[in-house]
Structure formats: C-alpha cells, structure tokens
Amino acid sequence: MSSTEELKARIDKIEQGGHEKYHSKNKERGKLFVRERLALLFDEGIEIEDAFFANCMDDSLPSDGVVTGIGKINGQKVCVMANDSTVKAGSWGKRTVEKILRIQETAEKLELPMIYLVDSAGARITNQIEMFPGRRGAGRIFHNQIKLSGRVPQICLLFGPSAAGGAYIPAFCDVVVMVDGNASMYLGSPRMAEKVIGEKVTLEEMGGARMHTTISGVGDVLVKSEAEAIQYAKRYLSYFPANFRSRPGLVAGKEVKPFEKSISEIIPENQNAAFNMYDLIDRIIDEDSFCEIKKKFAAELITGVARINGRSIGIIANQPRVKGGVLFTDSADKAAKFIQLCDAFNIPLLFLTDVPGFMIGTKVEREGIIRHGAKMLSSMSEATVPKISVIVRKAYGAGLYAMAGPAFDPDCVIAFPNAQIAVMGAEAAINAVNANKIAALPEEERAAYIKEKQDEYRREIDIYRLASEMVVDTIINPDDLRKELNARFSIYEDKKIVFTERKHGVYPV
Amino acid sequence: MEEIRASMAGNIWKITVKPGDVVEEGQDVVILESMKMEIPIAAEDGGTVKELMVAEGDFVNEGDIIAIIE
Fold first, then answer.
1. Would you call A360 an interface residue with chain B, using a CB distance cutoff of 8 Å?
2. Is residue A437 one of the residues assigned to a domain?
3. Residue ranges of the CoA carboxyltransferase C-terminal domain (chain A) (predicted)?
4. What is the per-residue pLDDT for B36?
5. Residue A362 domain-assigned?
C-alpha cells in the first residue's frame, strides 16, 4: 500500500465513526450519524475540519468522538462542534476537550457563531486526570462559552444526553433545541439519584426534553425530530448577525398574512376579558416570520424574533389568554434572558403591553418574585437597542415598568385609544382606597357608590390626559400599528448609546 | 384521562361545561377570576367531561384539579 493509499484508507475508516452496532442502535432511536447531521446543517457540508486524526493511534476512538470545523449556514460561516455518539457514547477524553476548546477559540478569533450538536455521555472517568481538572480541562469549555456569550450567537442542538458537567454546555448557550424522546439534561442520572438520595424517577421526569422546555426552562424549543431541530437552528440564525459588531441582515419584506378581522376588532373593550396576543402579533409582522423562543415555558409572556418589512425585531408580549398575562417569576426570567439576547446582537425590541402587574400572594413571594422581577427590569433598562413600548390595553403597577415603560428610556411609548396606565385597575383601586367607606354604606347603596368612584378613577387615568402630560408619546389607531412601527424602527436603527460607564452592574439574580 | 388543573390561584368565576359534554382540544372548561382578570382554563386534549371538581365561587390554588376529561 502506497503512503497515499494508506492515508485514504485511514480517512475512510475514521469517517465511518464507531462500531456498526452503535450506528444501528442510533438509527432505531431516530438518531442520525454525526456526519449526516452536519450535511443537513450546512449549505455545502463541513468545509474545514480540524484534528480529524485526533487519537488515531487508537482504532476505537475515531476523531476522539467529536467533529469540529467550519461550514456555511444561509451563506454565513459558522463554527461547529458535534459529538459522535457511535464513539464511546460521545464521551469526552483529553483530545475531545482540546478539540472543543480549539474550535471555540477559532469562533472567538473569527467572531463567528458557534453551534454545539450535543449527544454525549459526559466525561470518560478513566481519563479524568487528563481531561477534567486542569487548565485545558473540560471546565475551560464553559469558561470559553461564558467569554463568547454576547460576542457571537451560541446555539445548542440537543440530540441525546447531556449529562453531569456536560449539561452546562446547553446552559451557557443562547438557545437550546431539544429532540423529544431522545434529548436529556441532568446533573445526576436517575440511577445516581436512586443510589444517593433515594429518589425513584424516570429519565424523562428527571431531565427529558418536555420537562426542560415546559417546567425548568433550561431548554427553549421542543422538536419532534433531529431534522426539525436543524431546520430551527438555520431559521433562527437568519435573524441574527454573525457577531455583536454587526446588525442583522435585511431580507426582502413580506406582507402581513391576511385576516378577516382587524386589530381593533380583536381587542376586547373589557380590560379584564382574555384575548389571544398571537392574533395581534400575526397582524403586524411579515407573514410566517415569527420564530418563537420558549413557547411552552411561562406562556403568559411571549418571546420571539420576527420581521417587520424584512427587519429583525425581538417581541416581548404579555399573553392575556394565559394566567391573565400576569408576570410570574418564570416569565420575568424568560423576558430577562430574551432581552439580553436581542440587545447583545443589535436586534430592536418591541414590547406589546397588556399586563395586570406582577403576581401577588405567598407562593410567589417565597419564590422571590421581587428579585426575579428585578432581573427583567435590569435587562430591559440596560438594553441600548431601539425599544418601543406599545400599550395595547392595560399597564398596571410594576408591569408598566417591566414592559419598557416611559421611565426606562424607550425610544417611544405608543398607546391604543383604550389603553389604561395606572398603579392598579379601577376595581382594585376603589376597593383599596374606599374599603371602610364601602363597608359603612347600606348594602343597597354600595353598587352605585362603587360605580361612581370607578368612573371617576377611569376619568383620572384617561389616556388623552396621559398623552397631554406627555407620558405616552402618541395615541394611534390600532390598525395603523405596523405602519407606525415600520416607520419608527427604520429611524431608530441608527441609535448609538452606551448605557453607563463601569465594570459591570451588581445584577439581581 | 386528563386532569385539568388551575394554572394559578383564584376564584372559579364561570363553568362553561357540564359532565357528559364533549370538549375539543383547547376548548375552555372554566373561567377563573384572579388578579381582576378573567382567565380561561382550557382542555389540553379533547374528550368527554367525566367530573367537575369545583363549583362557581370556589377558591382554587395553583395546581388544584378542576375537571377530569376522558
């Protein structure tokens, strides 16, 4: 065999990954081989691959169980690391870790987005001294991720397990997509939990895709298949620039999807009645342009990127259809991270406000709703991208503040004609202020008295009065919202401000 | 069988179904009143209403069972 023939034979062998039985096992579970995943992800496959021969002196560890390199998505260069679960269950050895570190460092030098295709059993305990504790050990992966955060987009597609320390890879990404049934994250496996703390649970209960995308919020997007996960990542990236220095690209604008009813026809007059905020979002964005993040988690607040006339915008919207649109600890966290994400990558923010306030009661106080709410307020306040707040119906209490209210430097506050801005709604306010008086009145006089006081209160907070006081910048016909937003975002996009000078804030967490 | 649970603490303001009714996925079963808001609670899957566990005016805590759908 000539030297070039030997080279070719070695390459062919390494490209096949691990033993055939692991390939068939993966296939049974609907899992693709790592190289098939990369072929689906990139426009023209992986174009540059690094350390292909890593650990090639050991036949059982082709590429040391991970593929790293660069390819293009929607024409944009992107760095990737992808576990090969046919090689020792995608576990990490010394070279696996070094390969991951190097591609992260490449992403940092070239300022390119970084995608992690995760399918790994975690550390190879037999190699722990080489890969776990040292300066170039696994901890460095997370250190690099934290450093990359906000510099370049970081996306995690979770196809299999992400166990113990490995579970921090998703934790430091901007967005985590999980394949239902196969993806999981946990610090301790169910087996370990049973041994150490005596808890008996299934893998799905402990760290399954559905649990994480609905309850813990560690996962962001639940998908049915790997192909769907890859499709989501490609779509998601199209809204983002390559790094924090640039703006998202403009694409050809699309018309709004046609609907029978207009915005003014779908919003109920009654402030307390539910309506579906998605119906409003669909009526202002380019057709089919909403790419939602954390749809199933804290659904009382909607977050996602969309386009208005081809321009990327981030939407934070209260959802009156779920829990009355009230803000909870989870919804505040959800908003805080999403606002940071958009602000990091120069995506303007649109707040659609219809909020009765933050939840009250012992349950949420014990959960620390004050500090969770504070996180949302700090992220929103610090965001220097264009910010527009639209008061769709009500903006009560700290809800007004959290949704980019006038005191937090929004570029403008737009109100609909039925908008109400107040410390609280009329019913609650009248009960709070006049409780003794109401109790002292004869039963038959109470209703009339309460109504009179409520009407008086509503006149006091009339939206034209607030416009006259310049609390809101304008009042518009709801059906003109898209036109108004398009005009304003195209002007505000040149905004360049620095929030303040300091090392960093002491953030509420 | 699906247990429909209260999404947050509040009072049962209106019950929009009765035992034996067939409900579709996403159909409202009760409307809760909390934080001065009307909060619809919908069935996640379709089915027949087997049992209602609450009456109008009842207080429910987050997670309490409101109805059972078969």
1. yes
2. yes
3. 258-509
4. 87
5. yes
